[in-house]
Design a protein that fits this description.
The protein has one domain (2-100): Elongation factor Ts, dimerisation domain (Tetrahydropterin Synthase, Chain A). It has helices at residues 30-33, 36-53, 66-72, 75-87, and strands at residues 2-10, 19-27, 58-61, 91-100. By secondary structure, it is an alpha+beta fold. It has four helices and four strands; from the N terminus they run E-E-H-H-E-H-H-E. A hairpin with an 8-residue loop joins strand 1 and strand 2 (19-27). Strands 1-2-4-3 form a four-stranded antiparallel sheet. Helices cover 42% and strands 32% of the residues.
Amino acid sequence: MAGRIETYVHSDSTTENKGALIMKIATDTDFAARTDQFKAFAKQTAMMSYGALGHMRRFVAGPEIWDMIVAKFPELEDQRKTLERELGEKVRIAEMAILRL
């Protein structure tokens, strides 16, 4: 399995919602994982996932949490499916974790 580990850190001086998300987005080959489209999808997905789940104090979960994220941001699932068609490979959210201060 190939893919990418992507992170998003949310930390500023004006809000109390400080934390980070780390996720593993899997695909079939390193070739696909190195494309600009895959990297852009990973970056946006990490940021939007934190937006959807950042209220949680802490969790480590597998792909079942994807439904919660897509409920808030359905366009992410559309983008994932489009990316699969463009790459000709499966793209899946394999693991993720959130840590908060």
